[in-house]
User: Which sequence fits this backbone?
């Protein structure tokens, strides 16, 4: 595959595109992506009261779905004290003149990107696709679906699992009982954004490992070697963001991440087996 060997069309035109031509094509894809993000941002802007109160501020509400579901599970298995999280009692404030205004624009832009993600990735894929061979295209069929599915699954996991645990932990953490937690809306948003977007990107790990294995940068043996370190890191992160010392909440956060890691090993193993088969076929 050669990025700078794109053809102008699928016809018999053999002329290769110049670097300037590539930049022009890329600009078109970027422009359409920006328009899609703007449409998503406009949608959130129109329904901003719903998105801010019920979505952005959701984990601070006592009736947030995660709190209710985990408490019901706790009661059912007689672990109510471990799984039921108490009320989040934090007052928020804006300490700058344009604080709420700038936060509003940050919210709608990030939200617009999340909504438009499948289209944005499709535009990126359209730019890269002409550089792939027919064989490579066959192996990457359905990539837009899988990337989008993993991204939204990660976003939901970050929002409904990681974010409420983290918010509950920071709301309860105090160096001294005389120190009151009074957050700024900007700092709250700065915590929520990486938790949600970061989870969406983290869930791309299996596909990232798949493509890295394709080009020979990552192997299944390397991933197996560092597995024990990955497990430790995952559980440290889970222990940090979950409130209290209970193991159950830590496992709830850690298991999906461990599963992603194991899927990555499985995918890289399948890639290596396929490569060996192709090499054997060539020799024969």
Assistant:
């Amino acid at each position: 595959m050669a990025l700078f060997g794109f053809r102008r069309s699928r016809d018999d035109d053999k002329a290769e595109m110049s670097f300037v031509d590539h930049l022009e094509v890329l600009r078109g894809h970027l422009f359409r992506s920006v328009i899609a993000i703007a449409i998503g941002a406009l949608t959130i802007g129109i329904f901003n009261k719903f998105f801010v109160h019920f979505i952005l501020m959701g984990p601070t509400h006592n009736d947030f779905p995660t709190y209710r579901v985990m408490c019901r599970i706790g009661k059912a298995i007689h672990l109510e004290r471990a799984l039921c999280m108490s009320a989040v009692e934090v007052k928020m404030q804006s300490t700058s003149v344009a604080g709420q205004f700038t936060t509003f624009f940050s919210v709608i832009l990030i939200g617009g990107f999340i909504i438009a993600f499948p289209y944005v990735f499709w535009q990126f894929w359209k730019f890269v696709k002409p550089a792939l061979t027919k064989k490579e295209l066959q192996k990457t069929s359905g990539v837009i679906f899988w990337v989008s599915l993993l991204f939204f699954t990660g976003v939901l996991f970050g929002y409904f699992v990681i974010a409420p645990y983290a918010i509950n932990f920071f709301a309860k953490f105090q160096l001294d009982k005389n120190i009151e937690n009074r957050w700024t809306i900007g700092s709250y948003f700065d915590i929520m954004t990486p938790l949600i977007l970061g989870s969406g990107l983290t869930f791309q790990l299996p596909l990232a490992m798949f493509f890295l294995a394709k080009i020979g940068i990552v192997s299944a043996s390397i991933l197996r070697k560092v597995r024990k370190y990955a497990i430790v890191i995952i559980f440290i992160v889970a222990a940090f963001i979950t409130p209290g010392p209970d193991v159950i909440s830590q496992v709830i956060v850690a298991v999906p991440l461990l599963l992603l890691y194991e899927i990555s090993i499985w995918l890289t193993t399948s890639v290596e087996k396929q490569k060996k088969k192709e090499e054997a076929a060539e020799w024969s």
Notes: The radius of gyration is 23 Å. The longest helix spans residues 247-283. The longest strand covers residues 91-93. The chain has twelve helices and two strands.
